[in-house]
Specification:
Layout: H1 3-12, H2 30-50, H3 53-57, E1 60-68, E2 74-75, H4 77-90, E3 91-105, E4 108-121, E5 128-140, E6 146-155
Parallel strand pairs: 1-6
Antiparallel strand pairs: 1-2, 3-4, 4-5, 5-6
Length: about 160
């Protein structure tokens, strides 16, 4: 597994993690779905750009699964947190994401989009630049927030 693929998988884990709330338990409107996707991407960017592994992991449900290119699945928030902490200890990361489509159906939904990032090795060396796509399955939590329950990403690089 390359550093780029590893970083892409960890960075995307949740381009769509969970910070917007829908006003009711009914199926949210298209406007609310768009807001959920946009707000989640913004929360993820903020957490990544601050190097805050706890904030990134908080966007995932306790039993979330992260499926990234060329690596084993990461199962559970604790494992996802560990991966992010490792990444943030080795790199300063600048992330930009776009939720292209978010659809919500009752308490479930999905968001798909694109990302680009730059990893600056803290030990020095050349930056790693990547871009790609993500697909995240979402679940509304009892408090009304949305969290990633399954996340898959892939790099556009070979």
């Amino acid at each position: 597994m390359t550093k780029t693929h590893r970083a892409a998988s960890i960075l995307i884990c949740v381009m769509v993690g969970g910070c917007a709330s829908a006003p009711s338990r009914d199926t949210p409107s298209a406007e609310n779905a768009t807001a959920v996707g946009t707000n989640m991407v913004r929360a993820l960017e903020t957490a990544f750009n601050a190097g805050d592994a706890q904030a990134v992991a908080a966007l995932f449900a306790d039993d979330a699964v992260l499926m990234a290119s060329q690596q084993a699945d990461e199962v559970g928030r604790a494992e996802i947190l560990k991966s992010y902490a490792e990444q943030f200890s080795a790199y300063t990361i600048q992330l930009r994401g776009v939720a292209v489509e978010t659809q919500l159906f009752g308490d479930y939904g999905f968001s798909r989009g694109t990302y680009e990032f730059t990893l600056m090795p803290k030990a020095g060396g050349d930056p790693i630049v990547d871009d790609g796509r993500f697909l995240t399955v979402l679940q509304r939590q009892p408090d009304g927030s949305w969290k990633a329950i399954r996340e898959m990403s892939n790099s556009s690089k070979p």
